[in-house]
Amino acid sequence: MATRKDLLKAQAFTSRRMIASFINRDPDDPTPPLRRVGMATFVSVLLGVILVAGYTLMGLIRPDSNPGWKEGGVVISDTESGALFVYSPEGDLLIPMADVASARLKAAGAEADGRPRTMNVRTDALRGLRQAPVEGIDGAPRQLPAAEDVDAYPLKMCSTAPDLSGERFVTLEFNASPPASDGFAFVAQHSDRSEYIIFGGKKHRLWTDPTNSGLTMVPDLPRIEVGNAWIAAMPEGLPITPLDIQGIGDDHGRYIAGFARGDIGRAEASTDPTQDQWFVQTEEGVVRISYLDMDALVQKYHQGSTNQVRTLGAQDWKGLDRFSLPSRRTPDVPWDQPVGPPQDANVESRSICATWTEDRPDDPVISYGDETPELPANFRVTVGNSFDLIAMEPLTGALLRHSGSQSPETAAFLVADGVKYAIPDVVSRRALGYGETALVPVPGGLLSQIPDGLRGGRNLSLDSVQVLRPPSSDEGP
User: Fold this and answer.
1) Which stretches does the entry tag as region Disordered (predicted)?
2) Which residues of 143-179 are buried (b: 16+ CB within 10 A; e: fewer)?
3) Which of 283, 320, 395, 434 maximizes the CB count within 10 A of its CB?
């Protein structure tokens, strides 16, 4: 009886004879019927590999053999000198470019849909071509960071720990470490004696009684001179000012027994026993306010004494639904009482930082004790409206926009080597290679404190590319 192996051999033999009879018309032909097809495929692939390798080697040995550099949308790089050119078919000449940004903008043209190609060409291939005067953007960066190296987050602004003389410095660091602590609230003191509460990722200017400088809001929070630049760079919130209540003392007992206009009350929150809800009676009745609004009213109408704040119980709310009362809270101010740092944090002697992240682009995390960039010896505070130190890795960058502008056509700002370069439109961003790079929103106060890399209204756009030196009479091929 035939074994399984014998049956498999018989099946293979029968299949081979059948295929040979159909293809070669000879079932006894010993040559495999598909051998010619396989051989032809192998030879074709081998020839293709040889041709590709040959052209690659030729391109390395003689890069000028590729005539593509005379096409539009190409930045020409001289392999020997590193000089950059853009070929102009009008007059068959080369336009020397002073910087890579200008070269890309010039090669891409006014309707750029992407970054132009860069081709390496030997000097021998360029010899004999007439050259135009050098063009460029005066002050443009010598190098541009690659698109994959353009990222701001985490973006950290710090007021450094005081030095031996008590001086703090304001630093801005790109691609920084995460916040070193949980968020907290504090009062930032400006050199003009104004105060700002830093709370919920924003700054709110605190109200002060012009007739009594001894009264201060939120006296339980630490007060720190973080630096004017630090305050200016924070997202702007509305100032905390007391409600203007007309007829103080009127309507006594009209809504709540023993309550009149200007009286303030507290009640335990139904959802969070650690926080209270705050109310005040106005000419429109009893309204709900935030903790900070309450504090401002205490300063204005009660000489800063919280003893005048009444605790309201269930019996006081008869006939009133406190959960449906109108709100007179200052917009964008949190309801709750701001929570300061732990008692043992000693924040007055530590760094204070605000960190923007991809998850929190609009309301930075406030932290303390973060590591800050190393300052040079004998470092001095920067004079003028700018950060004392901007730290970022070489050949990296960030693409920023003003947080108040939501238009996709808005201007962008490339930050590299600690200075910013304006890019006015999307077309210019595409030409520079940043068409797909996300813009990071930052407050205007932060953006304005990064020094400008260009002067005289210039920016990284084709309109700013100009002749940098006039043509000389002896210039020729």
Assistant:
1) 328-348
2) ebbebeebbbbbbbbbbbbbeeeeebbbbbbbbbeeb
3) 434
The per-residue pLDDT for 477 is: 39
Length of the chain: 477
Q: CA-CA distance, 339 to 93, in Å (whole number)?
A: 68
* Same-domain check for residues 160 and 235: yes
Residue 165 within a domain: yes
Which residues sit opposite 6 in a β-bridge?
none
The pTM for the full model equals: 0.81
pLDDT digits (tens, 9 = 90+) for 29-46: 565 555 555 666 666 766
How far is CA 11 from each of CA 8, 14, 19, 184, 461, rounded to the nearest angstrom? 5, 5, 12, 81, 74
> Are 182 and 213 in the same domain?
yes
pLDDT of 448 over the 50 cut = yes
Question: Where among 14, 37, 61 does a domain terminate?
Answer: 61
Host domain of residue 294: 263-328
Q: Which of 16, 39, 61 is the last residue of a domain?
A: 61
In a domain, 99, yes or no: yes
> Residues 129, 267: one domain?
no
Rounded distance between C-alpha atoms, residue 443 and residue 81, angstroms: 43
Residue 67: predicted pLDDT: 62
Counted domains in the chain: 4
DSSP 409: T
Structure tokens at 462: 């084709």
**Shared domain check, 227 and 171:** yes
Do 362 and 220 fall within a single domain? yes
Its sign, for the CA torsion 67, 433, 139, 410, is positive
State in Å, rounded, how far the first CA of the chain is from the last one: 93
| DSSP H or E segment with residue 14 | helix 4-23
CA gap 4, 10 in Å, rounded: 10
Q: What is the pLDDT of residues 198-257, one digit of tens each?
A: 999 999 999 998 888 788 999 999 999 999 999 999 999 999 999 999 999 999 999 999
Domain assignment of residue 440, yes or no: no
- Closest by CA position to 352, among listed 339, 340, 369, 337: 369
What secondary structure letter does DSSP report for 246? Answer: S
Express each pLDDT in 282-328 by its tens digit.
Answer: 999 999 999 999 999 999 988 888 898 999 999 999 889 988 999 99
